[in-house]
Amino acid sequence: MFGLGFSASTAGTNYANVFSLPDTDSKSAYDLMEKAFPNTSGDTDTVVWKVDEGSVRDQAVRDRIRPVLDDIAKMHGVGAVTSPYDARGAAQVSKDGTIAYAQVTFVKRANEVPKELVQDVLDTAQGADRAGLQVELGGQAIQRVQEPPQGLSEGVGIVAAAIVLFLAFGSFFAMTLPIAIAVFGVGTGLFATQLLSHTTDVPDIAPLLASLIGLGVGIDYALFIVTRHRKGIQRGLDPEEAAVTALNTSGRAVLFAGGTVCIALAGMLVTRLRFLDGVVIGTSLTVVLSVLAATTLLPALLGFLGPRVLSRRQRRRLAAQGPEPEGASGLAARWSTAVQKRPRRTAALALVFMAVLAVPVLSLRLGATDQGNDDASTTTRKAYDLLAEGFGPGFNGPLQVVTEGGETSALVKGLQDTPGVARVAALPPAQGVTVIQVVPTTSPQSVRTDRLIDRLRDDVIPAAGVEAHVGGVTAVSKDFSTVTGDRLPLFIATIIGLGFLLLLVAFRSLVVPLTAALMNLIAAAASFGVLVAIFQWGWGLELLGLGKEGPINAFLPVIMLSLLFGLSMDYQVFLVSRMHEEWVHTRDNARAVRVGLAETSRVINSAALIMVCVFMAFVLSGDSGAAMAGVGLAAAVALDAFILRTALVPAAMHLLGDSNWWLPKGLEKRLPHLAVEPKEEAAPSAEARAGGSASAVHGFVRTADGEPVAGAAVTLLSGGGRQLDRVESLADGSYIVSVPAPGKYLLATTAPTYGSRARHVDVGEGPLVYDVELVEGEVDAVN
């Protein structure tokens, strides 16, 4: 990590936002403009000022603004300043004379302009501000210096995660481990992504998204392994053995979970949007390194800490009372039993709740946010509003109609006569290319502006008899939204299909991956419903300090669905792997679902709470795209963990019964063997069984008060999980199961209205008397 950090710091960054949309009209317009104006790559920002009384042309205003613009023009890194007080800038004054603007063109792109230079421009310009004269600045470079300090959102997320971990573990060392692993994984991932930015196009939002997903999965993966390790120590294993067991169980689940996240992220590649390629590289690399840290560095740290991974109180209790019994009790066990008793009601309530949240998704509109969506207190938002006030709403997103050769007078006339067009200005031709600036009467994010672009392309330009293309930021945004929407079904089908195949191989079941795919779609619909209600309808935006409502960023569905499907699969893997582990040992679906939910719901909910804290912290990032992704993913993870995985999934699995684990025999033979759980122990060989005589285990099934339990299922299983005998207790609670030969077996007992028990029993030459006590609300586990 230190080597990567040194190399990355030495090399610096070379992030590039490449919005390449082949075969689109805006891309054709961009190519022609690049041919005509090859030297206009620098970022152009705007200084806007407004007077309360009089005109911006008044001598007093001129004397205050002109020296400021001259000082900015002399700064190293500023290419040119176009002033409204020069002959070529006469049109940069509003009709009523109260608002004017100057254009500041830097010699580099916005992400390459030094922040010190931008801050100097900002401070110099706002130095002219006084009573009656308002000065604001807008543009991409200006927006960068408004962002909070780098690392603020990550730091807040880590602090929130540390609080949750300490409350869950009660141990400083146990709290520190998941955070250390996540920071290590994210750090190495960001350094590697920074180096890769010199060899491939990586957008500047990629490291932010990589931090967001890396912190979430890194803490979660370490949390699952540490939880299993602590449980092993509490049940009497020495630290080394507990670490091996945790890595052999939860560690396997982490590998599969990481694989599902990477597969979901790689699904973005099918959209063939170059902007997303760098996002895939940065986020996938960070996830892979987080998985490696959790499965290599973490076990080493667990071995180093030994029993100190437990709190002092837990260590004292372990020394005084001995190992804890294998089982789950408390709220998790009671909830698990409640779901088993009322699966239909639980499933119905969960579905209705998710359906209500999903309703707003029906009005989802993709587009692009701009500085008009910034917080009202920012100078970029104030500059945006001043320009809209002085020059019309469409001034902030002009269209560029680009044509090569030919007569353009008919085209200009047609554009001027088009409803929805405020102003038309044809620039002097260059290299045979003519650019016509078209200012709409509506804002860049308006639906009517989208319709105007369609009207220009479909009617106005063909009627003029010339070949022309509509470009500009607003047109690019519209084309990007259209392309994304068209390719979204293929993308969703790809990530669902790949996730289905992975779960099919992992759990050797057709129903489990089908259930997971359906739940992922439900989670996606509900989380996007929340996103639309907040960012598109504006519910709670002021409370969150996230500016003004607008369309959902066009690239967000692809990125968010990738992360959502990956994280949802994480929880599905952790939940179902524990159920499958119990199913392998007992072949009792009701028991497997109950035990799996009771043992994993608490850790899944803790992990989800940590992710929600991490994701919500990215509201502080200053980037609207990251804020949207953070809020959307926080909602998705909360709904997925607290509603789907702890209510709807187990309820559905109770209703489906043993068919959860059904797989056609022909498919069973063809599938590769990749197990999330450790390999099962072999069943007793024929020679071993022949070496001893048949025997039996018998006794009574009673409650804690000594009352007999009738109809309890008592199952005898081999060490490898093969069912040897199964009976139901009689009216007096008595039972008897046959044992093929002396040895060690597993006796599992479960009753619908009570908890469950599973104990290893050693059977000698004669029958073994073994009474079972069932306690309501307690779930015993097989590990």
Task: Walk me through the topology.
Elements: H1 2-11, H2 25-36, E1 44-51, H3 59-74, E2 78-82, E3 99-106, H4 115-126, E4 133-138, H5 140-146, H6 152-169, H7 172-196, H8 206-234, H9 239-266, H10 274-305, H11 312-321, E5 327-328, H12 331-341, H13 343-358, E6 366-367, H14 379-391, E7 399-404, H15 409-416, E8 421-426, E9 433-440, H16 447-464, E10 468-471, H17 473-507, H18 511-536, H19 541-544, E11 552-553, H20 556-586, H21 589-617, H22 624-656, H23 665-670, H24 686-690, E12 695-703, E13 713-717, E14 723-728, E15 734-739, E16 743-750, E17 756-763, E18 768-769, E19 772-774, E20 779-780
Uncertain residue segments: 680-692
Number-wise, the strands total: 20
Helix tally equals: 24
How much helical structure, as a percent, in the residues? Answer: 55-70%
Name given to the CATH homologous superfamily of the domain at 152-323: Multidrug efflux transporter AcrB transmembrane domain
Quick one: overall form?
A: elongated
Query: Mean pLDDT, nearest integer?
Result: 83
Strand content: 5-15%
| CATH topology (level 3) name of the domain at 152-323 | Multidrug efflux transporter AcrB transmembrane fold
Strand order, main sheet: write it out. Answer: 2-3-1-4
Please state the second-level CATH architecture of the domain at 152-323. Up-down Bundle
Sheet with the most strands, sense and barrel status? 4 strands, antiparallel
Report the radius of gyration as a whole number of Å.
Answer: 32 Å
- Broad structural category: alpha+beta
Quick one: CATH class of the domain at 152-323? Mainly Alpha
| N- and C-termini, Cα separation | 36 Å
Subcellular location: Cell membrane
InterPro entries: CarboxyPept-like_regulatory, MMPL_dom, Mycobact_MmpL
Protein name: Integral membrane export protein
Keywords: Cell membrane, Membrane, Transmembrane, Transmembrane helix
